[in-house]
Amino acid sequence: MTVYEDDTQAIEALKKVYGSSWDAINPESVARMRAQNRFKTGLDIAQYTADIMRKDMAEYDADSSVYTQSLGVWHGFIGQQKLISIKKHLKTTNKRYLYLSGWMIAALRSEFGPLPDQSMHEKTSVPALIAELYTFLRQADARELDLIFTELDSARSAGDTAKVAALQAQVDNYETHVVPIIADIDAGFGNPEATYLLAKKMIEAGACAIQIENQVSDEKQCGHQDGKVTVPHEDFIAKLNAVRYAFLEVGIDNGVIVSRTDSLGAGLTQKIAVTYQAGDLGDQYNSFLDCEEITEAELGNGDLVIKREGKLLRPKRLASNLFQFRAGTGEARCVLDSITSLQNGADLLWIETEKPHIGQIAAMMNQVREVIPNAKLVYNNSPSFNWTLNFRQQAYDTLVEEGKDVSAYDRAKLMSVVYDDTQLAQDADEKIRTFQRDSSKEAGIFHHLITLPTYHTAALSTDDLAKGYFADQGMLAYVKGVQRREIREGIATVKHQNMSGSDLGDNHKEYFAGEAALKAGGANNTMNQFEEPTLVSH
Predict the structure, then answer these.
(1) Which of 70, 410, 420, 478 is 20 to 30 A off residue 220, Cα-Cα?
(2) Cα(203)–Cα(253) distance, integer angstroms
């Protein structure tokens, strides 16, 4: 017996209990609606997706070639279309997630308008976007199953038993569009209590994985901006605990915490850490401070000093009242941050880097793995990197190391189109193509994401359309560049009425009102000009 059959029989039994007043209720229609609404609450989604992530993490531990991926999305429709595309082209959503980017919420979803990535947007917009994404993913399930049910009814009417069996198997083995979301909570939007309250809302909306960074909440900066300020480990651990308590309170015991360190690019700290004895966590944090040794006689008015190894040290304090780290300590601080986070409740790491360089990432992760062998990284394949220039320069440097002739290249100008057809450019592109595979093998990267790709693709595709439509191409810009491609490539949005739920609503109307239902999908619906979108096979 399948869930579909169980639901049909259960409603049959209920009809007998309630008698003739339920005569209009079709048990199979109820079973269909239940299949189309598998997840009743956000917590159902959070538990389902947490189980997926934990399984994927275990599989990666056994085989680093089975890493996971995601793209950042800023609207439910964009997330939905991404998953529909994955199912259409790759036939499964396995190992594919969604990423919810705080940068894109700030830039695209704030009531203040576009904002920099500095935690100035409304924190309620974070769980709101999680809920929106899952609403659209659940609607994708309902729509696709509705298409299958429509085909099933046609096959039954035609007496095609083989097709009926095949379609019923698709229903019974249906793979949902609902996948894990790794959701950005920035630096926690306040003190640990504020972090806990927001984390709980995010989990209740469906988030199974929450990413939190070790910056100061009220000084938070984008990971690729200057002026980043970190907090002592004890402060950050309190927020890790707050997120874990939120997961445990709502019953998602295996929720995933991604601990992000921005220490590589952060040269400042807001506080000097509390320390009780030499070598403790606070003392290790303070050991990275940029200090000058002084005598007691040299103490000035309002000076703050720390005592280490019998010496009086005066940390360099800026006019902003922030303290400065010694230059060149970023990688060591990242390693300490990562080990400390994993030892205090985090499940995955995120080390924000300034460039995509496997050697740099692996050097830090190897040190972490000396202490915690199964340490795993979530890595930002960031659009803030100039991937073309970075990898061409890496290819150039490899040639230099090998003693090859590089006189045909200007390392500083390798972005130029004049190099596009060179062997160096081809070698660089191949390294970009295999970057995720290679870094997952060599640097412990479990999950690869691009934080804000759909921000860029939305701008690029709009530019493509606008430059032709408002110039001499007129409607041909849309027809040739959009609609014709939609039709020929089987993009379901060509039938936008169907995508928005029109056919699904018609079927529901028929459930509710029978032959009296007033439907939108009749002969005069202009969507009939288009072929049926290709169904995903399962």
Answers:
(1) 70
(2) 11
Q: With the CA atoms of 405, 406, 408 and 410 taken in that order, what torsion angle do they form, in degrees rounded to the nearest 10?
A: -170
Tokens of 506: 């018609």
**Domain identity same for 116 and 6:** no
Q: For residue 401, is it within any domain?
A: yes
User: Strands 229-230 and 96-100, how do they pair?
Assistant: unpaired
Per-residue pLDDT band at 361 (split at 50, 70, 90): very high
Please state, in angstroms and rounded to a whole number, the distance separating the CA atoms of residues 186 and 352: 13
Please name the helix (run of DSSP H) or strand (run of DSSP E) that holds residue 44, with its range, or none.
Answer: helix 42-62
Separation of alpha carbons 282 and 286, rounded Å = 6
Nearest to 129 by CA among 111, 97, 107, 105: 105
383 annotated ligand-binding residue: yes
Token representation of residue 261: 């360190």
For residue 4, give its domain range. Answer: 1-36
> Can you read off the two tokens belonging to residue 95?
């190992």
d(CA 96, CA 181): 10
- Give catalytic residue positions: 222
| Residue 384, marked binder | yes
Domain co-membership, 150 together with 277? yes
Domain count, the chain: 2
260 marked as part of a ligand binding site: yes
47 found inside a domain: yes
> Could you tell me if 365 and 440 lie in one domain?
yes
| pLDDT band at residue 224 under the 50/70/90 scheme | very low
Do 227 and 345 have their domain in common? yes
Amino acid at 236: F
Question: For the chain, how are helix, strand and coil distributed in percent, rounded to 5?
Answer: 55, 10, 35
Same-domain pairing of 60 and 9: no
Q: Is 409 left (phi over 0), alpha (psi -120 to 50) or beta?
A: beta
Q: Look at the block and give the residue holding tokens 């609450």.
A: 41
27 is in an annotated binding site: no
Q: Is residue 319 in some structural domain?
A: no
Q: CA–CA separation, 58 vs 103, rounded Å? A: 30
Query: Which amino acid, 392?
Result: R
- Asked if residue 21 belongs to a known ligand binding site, the reply is no
Q: Which residues contact 295 (CB under 8 A, 6 or more apart)?
A: 312
Residue 357 shares a structural domain with residue 378: yes
pLDDT digits (tens, 9 = 90+) for 404-452: 999 999 999 999 999 999 999 999 999 999 999 999 999 999 999 999 9
